[in-house]
Design brief:
Order of helices and strands: HHHHEHEEEHEEEHEEEHH
Strand order of the largest sheet: 7-6-10-8-9
Distance between the termini: 59 Å
Helix content: 25-40%
Radius of gyration: 31 Å
Structural class: alpha+beta
């Protein structure tokens, strides 16, 4: 809120300054007949000012979730990250009774000291993992909870462990963020990361990033698919790509008039100097003739 307030105050200052320049040039044009000022020059300056003023970024162009209702919106808990090829998973098999330590050992990968879990299971290109004793398991498309239930069902159905407890986590949940100012790798520690959370983790969007064309690229069925999301609208919650998957790539675009916006002070200073020089020249010329 504080950052948005500062940006809005800066925007008001720019608008006020442009307004003053318009007033000054209007007065000079109004009295240009008597002062013999080149009206074509003034019209060119006026056109430049109009172009510069159009580059101001209003809060409507950057404010998030502008149509968010006061009463809130229902959560979509169905959206959750799923296992995909080349994911790395940590899977632990535990005993609910605490009496089956010897039975669960074959299903866990220990370090050299025989304690702790350190090795992950890499999902191959076909969406399978090689699990001890059970062999090949197809896990692609399963959520974390579904993966736990699937392995537990295999263990119990085959009579290896009665009522086992399985814990699974993603080890390589990363999202990549690309913008004109650089890129970032976002390491996701939670089991669920949304589009808005990723924007926050990346440091947020600068003032001149297009909110209507923020792309999320994902590999789906062997193809790279891109969805463009707009965080200014609550419709972003309904997009299938709102909840991110491992290795998603978020990329942004700059507004076309960023050059004018970032160089606004320089442009206005140059115009002010030019107008001042013309005014001085006209006054001197008028004084000499008189």
């Amino acid at each position: 809120m504080v950052l948005e307030k500062i940006k809005w105050e800066r925007e008001e200052i720019h608008i006020f300054r442009i307004f003053l320049y318009f007033c000054t040039i209007y007065i000079m044009i109004k009295y240009s007949i008597s002062m013999r000022i080149n009206r074509l020059f003034l019209l060119i300056v006026l056109a430049v000012l109009a172009l510069v003023s159009s580059s101001c970024v209003t809060s409507k162009k950057v404010r998030y979730l502008q149509d968010m209702p006061i009463q809130g919106m229902p959560l979509n808990e169905a959206l959750e990250a799923t296992v995909a090829p080349y994911d790395e998973l940590r899977i632990q098999v535990l005993s609910n009774t605490g009496k089956d330590d010897e039975l669960i050992k074959p299903f866990n990968v220990y370090n050299n000291a025989g304690v702790g879990y350190y090795q992950g299971y890499l999902v191959d290109a076909n969406g399978n993992i090689q699990f001890p004793v059970l062999g090949d398991l197809h896990v692609q498309g399963l959520t974390r909870l579904q993966l736990q239930d699937t392995i537990a069902a295999h263990l119990e159905r085959n009579g290896y462990i009665k009522n086992p407890l399985v814990a699974a986590r993603f080890l390589n949940f990363k999202v990549f963020f690309l913008s004109s100012s650089g890129g970032k790798v976002l390491n996701i520690t939670d089991e669920r990361c949304t589009f808005l959370q990723a924007l926050a983790m990346s440091g947020g969007l600068d003032w001149y990033t297009r909110r209507d064309r923020i792309g999320v690229m994902r590999e789906v069925d062997g193809k790279r698919v891109v969805h463009y999301l707009d965080p200014r609208s609550t419709s972003v919650f309904e997009d299938d790509f709102f909840v991110l998957q491992q290795n998603d790539i978020i990329f942004t675009e700059e507004m076309s008039y960023k050059f004018f916006s970032t160089n606004l002070n320089t442009v206005l200073a140059l115009i002010s100097s030019a107008v001042s020089l013309v005014s001085v020249y006209t006054l001197i010329r008028s004084f000499i003739k008189n």
